[in-house]
């Protein structure tokens, strides 16, 4: 069906050459000589766009516009006027017009306006599709190549960029093509991590990434100044694609001075990665150096309840003997209490605030059916995160800090991946419950070729509670399911977002420095 244009102008006869031009281009044009006639037409016919003359006798263009927007708010309206007076433009723009043209208009102006407002989605879709198809082969070659740490970071950023572009065009075939390419990338990334992880944490080799236990030392501490204030926001479970989805909301308030990709340690879980982040130490070193601040897998209680104390010890070790604050926000009410005290926090050289919403979202997606339906794929998972951020106390905090010209840092401890392939395993009762990694004795039974095994936890700086303890990690989109009640496990956890294992989504985490505009 051709695009139908309603063109409203009291001198419509003079516009016949323009109408013939548009008809030759395949558009249908319905003429109207007054606002009243236009409103009558809209009662009977569907139109895709309205061209509206501002200066008409009787019902003026602006009055007609107000009535159209009240009755048909979703139809784009292009205001056409002889006047360049500022107040007329402001009235029209304030009434939510889609475009504004000054007479005399030429056919190419009109055509461009139509393409921008009506054909844009199709044009963008075609362009994105062609560009991704052209990039597909090059990306595939890079995925199969022997990439460095930095090259994996760049590749992941590029894949996320394509993902965010493709989700807007709603082309299922291209989306499936990209999904398959990401899956292949995760296969190769897992091999890369398995081949290099123990060298990284033991300082062997010439190349190692910034990891959880070195992020603050490398990225935050050099930016701290005792005479100025800074804020670090740790958004638990925030993936890089989620960060890129929420940044447009911050664009009017901040510009990005630094956007880095760091590597979460294994397991990519709060117990390990966030304690390492706040302590600057690997887990087994925390357990030895600060046994009172570490809980093992089998211990009761929150496994990350000592973050503030670990941060304090970390700052002391690096000679940062200044006042700092720490807050963990689990609900909106407490967030408001922290925000009410921001004027006091501005006196501190460092303020750290942890937000747990995204982590709670991923867990709720497993346990609560309605949340699972709201965030049942990558696109909706990002969308729910954006919706939370737009209405969160975190955004209010960031706006306030922008006004005060305070630099802001944003990072996370790990990300999540949507799991869909179960791996059968058998374990004793003391095996932990996480679906992406398991800690247990050598009696655990699992498909060894499908996982990354660490048989000696000491090598990976992981706490060792008994002589035969080992860690195993799922890769790609796999998850562990017990052989007993296997089908029940699969039905419950398949297509949920989990963390703890090895994937780009879980391990490649953002660290961002934002400066106020």
Structural class: alpha/beta
Number of strands: 18
| Termini gap | 46 Å
Shape: elongated
Number of helices: 21
* Radius of gyration from CA coordinates: 28 Å
User: What proportion of the residues is helical, as a percent range?
Assistant: 40-55%
Estimate the strand proportion.
Answer: 15-25%
Task: Catalogue the unreliable spans.
Answer: none
Q: For the report, how would you describe the main beta sheet?
A: 6 strands, mixed
Mean pLDDT: 91
Strand order of the largest sheet: 7-18-10-6-9-8
Offer a quick outline of the entry.
The chain is α/β, with parallel strands linked by helices. The chain is built from 21 helices and 18 strands.
Explain this structure.
- 46% of the residues lie in helices and 18% in strands.
- The chain contains 21 helices and 18 strands.
- It has a six-stranded mixed sheet with strand order 7-18-10-6-9-8.
- Helix 10 (240-250) packs parallel to helix 18 (378-390) and helix 14 (332-340) packs parallel to helix 19.
- It is elongated.
- The mean pLDDT is 91.
Labels describing this entry:
21 helices, 18% strand, five-stranded parallel β-sheet, 18 strands, 517 residues, single chain
